[in-house]
Amino acid sequence: MSEPQTTTRPALVRIGARTSPRFRLLCVPYAGAGTAAYRTFPQALPPWVEVWAIRLPARESRLAEPPLADIRSVVDVLVEELAGDEAFGPAPEGRAPLPYALLGHSMGALVCFELARALRRHELPQPAHLFVSGRRAPNIPDELPAIHRLPEAQFLAEVRRLGGIPDSVLAEPGLIDLIAPALRADFAVCETYRHAEEPPLPYGISAFGGRSDPTTTPEQLARWSEEADGPFTMRLYPGDHFFIHAHHRQILTEICRDIDPGSPDPRPGSR
Q: Residues 6 or more apart from 25 whose CB is under 8 A from it?
């Protein structure tokens, strides 16, 4: 499989370019992951939706860079990248920017939320919708013990116990050693996060969850509604914390309908 096409700014990666897109879906990965987490999304979406993904330091082509271990550092970097990128920053005079939505799973959902609030504070182009997956609402404190400072073997054992590593990663020899620094930093991002009160976001939020996810209950997922001043929708799917992989086609169908209620089912063979 070929490497996704990158922009001149390494944090933003376009996956599967479209000829005439009219909407962009910007995806933020979960802890330890890179843009490859979303590489199958373009095949499940209609041609009017273009998929972009965030590539944070210490993963994929940025493996040699030190990871970012707190939410403010991550968001500051992304705001700077988005403000300077022609796809997401302010459009040239006389042109309207292409609308976009943010999608994040687990840690990615938290990053998307704080990124959305930072874009509003900086008066930069805001998303039309926020899609969050596999993460309790940000105003619910983390009740699990912090693990990001544990010795390596204990840390990885706890991550496995919590279901924080996909089986595909565990099955790949040596891969866990490569992603361990990013994984530890990402857990630090989540475990040191403190929610601050701000007005609800002025658009809709859609939340996705796994019925057997040990990290997030339906009640915790439902409280994302408190962060939206627009429509809120919650959908649950069979599966554990990584339900998003098994059900990504159905989830992307729902995303298209939330973006454009009149859009047809984008899945192959659908009518």
A: 41, 45, 49, 50, 51, 52, 100, 101, 103, 255
Closest CA to 25 of 112, 117, 100: 100
Instruction: List, for residues 136-181, the tens digit of each pLDDT value.
Output: 999 999 887 899 999 988 998 888 887 777 777 766 767 888 888 9
The answer to whether residues 115 and 75 touch, using CB atoms and an 8 Å cutoff, is yes
How far apart, in whole angstroms, are the C-alpha atoms of residue 82 and residue 125? 9
Going edge to edge, which strands form the sheet with 12-15? 5-6, 12-15, 49-54, 23-28, 100-105, 129-133, 204-210, 232-237
Contact 113, 105 (CB under 8 A): no
pTM above 0.85, yes or no: yes
Instruction: Specify which residues 102 forms β-bridges with.
Output: 26, 130
H/E segment holding residue 148: none
> pLDDT tens, 46-65?
999 999 999 999 998 898 89
Distance between terminal CA atoms of the chain? 29
Going by C-beta distance under 8 Å and a sequence separation of 6 or more, which residues neighbour residue 237?
A: 208, 209, 210, 211, 243, 246, 247, 250, 251
Which residues lie closer than 8 Å to 236 by C-beta, 6 or more apart? 208, 209, 210, 211, 218, 221
Active site residues: 106
* Total Cβ atoms within 10 A of residue 110: 24
- What are φ and ψ of residue 6, in 5° steps? -105, 155
Residues of the chain with pLDDT under 70: 1-10, 94, 170-171, 173, 262-271
